């Protein structure tokens, strides 16, 4: 198999150990063979053996980064909630909207009513919007079916999307997202149903990880632990929606299970950050939801930095609190709203986002890793976080193949 060689580029490797900012290499060369990175470094240091017989591509001064990773989405769902968004802005309360059948119940209803092909048709444009901005790996959660058949349908759609588009999809079972109408005020009974569903869905090859919403309006730490125990019995990694609206010590609970990530975290306390650091758990910040819900409590970025908790950024694409399909916009919001540096933000959608999915073969550009990379019309990496509303993506490669 011949070597594909890209030259005349700036390459931001995002390697954590790189001495330069972003791991940036000026006048770089990137060699790909068999879908993997064969070599990356200054063009002057390119081994002659790699150049011999290689197909060389002139990057024309492009910036090259790892493929972007959107590590927290709910993008498979039916319907939309634009009507209740408008109603809220016209003065309706959440209680009034809920009484009228709005909120998550309306999304569950629309998702259950859609057949698999219809759900695919609704979800595919959302995924394609993400891919147009250089996303090469995306996590897709269930959680809007809330029954065995509907959850399986959502997870199958996620798998089909991976087959139809040149993208790597990781599926997460989020049965413990909310109480379905038929289990109203019977939270423990529904958690028992979630624990019954999980091994059946896993046996169908539909589950890569397990998530839960641990919050005063959702499930208690004790209920969440039951779900995580069921996941552990199957050898499945866990993630957690934690500390979004209150401090429920969810981060400590998740860390005790070696969670891949804790997500949202506006109310995270120091003991939670310390537990996450000890477990190697990634903090996934979701500026889209913070913005859309007009939250005022910022996630404790300084605390995460102090304890060296890796920070990832994601769209949280969902109909109720972050109807967003632009990971580049999240880069800007992470910087402007949460005061991350552009380098932290870019690491948050590459290296740390891959870690949040338990993936060690992508997120940085280094020999032996997947050749998932993006060519950008940008002179420097900070431009990706700086200019919002634009898309400088020139070309995306997945395992060395142009998408």
> In percent, how helical is the residue content?
25-40%
CA distance, first residue to last residue? 19 Å
Q: Determine Rg (CA atoms, Å).
A: 21 Å
The major β-sheet equals: 8 strands, mixed
Question: How would you sum up the global shape?
Answer: globular
Helix/strand class: alpha/beta
Please work out how many helical segments DSSP would assign.
Answer: 16
What are the low-pLDDT stretches, counting only 5+ consecutive residues below 50?
none
Mean model confidence by pLDDT: 96
Give the percentage of residues in beta strands. Answer: 15-25%
Would you report the number of β strands? 16
Structure description:
The radius of gyration is 21 Å and the shape is globular. Strands 1, 2, 3, 4, 5, 14, 15 and 16 form an eight-stranded mixed β-sheet that branches. A four-stranded parallel β-sheet has the order 6-7-8-9. A four-stranded parallel β-sheet has the order 10-11-12-13. It has helices at residues 48-51, 82-89, 94-99, 104-113, 116-131, 148-164, 187-203, 221-233, 250-256, 270-279, 287-292, 301-306, 327-338, 342-348, 351-356, 383-386; strands at residues 4-12, 24-33, 36-42, 55-58, 63-66, 68-70, 135-141, 168-176, 209-212, 239-242, 261-264, 282-285, 311-313, 373-376, 393-398, 401-402. With 403 residues, it is an alpha/beta fold. It contains 16 helices and 16 strands.
Topology (elements, then pairings):
Blueprint: E1 4-12, E2 24-33, E3 36-42, H1 48-51, E4 55-58, E5 63-66, E6 68-70, H2 82-89, H3 94-99, H4 104-113, H5 116-131, E7 135-141, H6 148-164, E8 168-176, H7 187-203, E9 209-212, H8 221-233, E10 239-242, H9 250-256, E11 261-264, H10 270-279, E12 282-285, H11 287-292, H12 301-306, E13 311-313, H13 327-338, H14 342-348, H15 351-356, E14 373-376, H16 383-386, E15 393-398, E16 401-402
Parallel strand pairs: 1-4, 1-5, 6-7, 7-8, 8-9, 10-11, 11-12, 12-13
Antiparallel strand pairs: 1-2, 2-3, 5-14, 14-15, 15-16
Helix pairs in contact: 5-6, 7-8, 9-10, 13-14
């Amino acid at each position: 198999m011949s070597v594909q060689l890209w030259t005349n580029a700036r390459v931001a490797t995002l390697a954590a150990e790189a001495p330069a900012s972003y791991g940036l290499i000026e006048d770089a060369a990137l060699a790909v063979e068999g879908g993997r990175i064969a070599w990356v470094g200054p063009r002057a240091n390119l081994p002659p053996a790699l150049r011999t017989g290689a197909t060389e591509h002139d990057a024309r001064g492009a910036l090259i980064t790892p493929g972007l990773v959107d590590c927290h989405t709910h993008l498979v769902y039916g319907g939309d909630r634009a009507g209740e968004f408008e109603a809220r802005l016209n003065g309706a309360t959440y209680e009034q909207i809920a009484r009228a059948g709005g909120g998550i119940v309306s999304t569950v209803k629309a998702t259950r009513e859609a057949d698999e092909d219809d759900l695919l048709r609704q979800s595919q444009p959302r995924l394609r919007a993400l891919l147009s901005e250089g996303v090469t790996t995306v996590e897709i959660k269930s959680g809007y079916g809330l029954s065995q058949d509907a959850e399986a349908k959502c997870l199958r759609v996620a798998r089909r999307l991976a087959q139809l588009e040149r993208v790597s999809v990781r599926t997460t079972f989020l049965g413990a997202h909310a109480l379905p109408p038929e289990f109203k005020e019977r939270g423990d009974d529904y958690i028992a149903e979630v624990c019954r569903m999980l091994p059946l869905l896993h046996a169908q090859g539909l589950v890569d990880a397990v998530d839960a919403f641990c919050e005063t309006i959702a499930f208690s730490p004790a209920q969440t632990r039951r779900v995580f125990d069921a996941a552990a019995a199957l050898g499945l990694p866990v993630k957690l929606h934690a500390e979004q609206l209150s401090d429920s010590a969810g981060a400590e609970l998740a860390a005790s299970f070696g969670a891949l990530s804790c997500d949202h975290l506006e109310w995270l306390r120091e003991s939670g950050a310390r537990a996450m650091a000890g477990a190697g758990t990634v903090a996934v910040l979701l500026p889209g939801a913070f913005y859309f819900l007009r939250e005022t409590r910022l996630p404790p970025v300084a605390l995460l930095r102090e304890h060296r908790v890796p920070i990832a950024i994601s769209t949280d694409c969902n109909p109720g609190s972050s109807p967003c399909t632009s990971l580049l916009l999240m880069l800007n919001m992470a910087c402007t709203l949460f005061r991350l540096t552009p380098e932290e933000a870019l690491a948050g959608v590459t290296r740390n986002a891959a870690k949040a999915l338990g993936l060690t073969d992508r997120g940085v550009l280094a020999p032996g890793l997947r050749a998932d990379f993006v060519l950008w019309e940008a002179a420097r990496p900070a431009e990706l976080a700086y200019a919002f509303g634009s898309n400088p993506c020139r070309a995306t490669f997945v395992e060395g193949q142009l998408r």
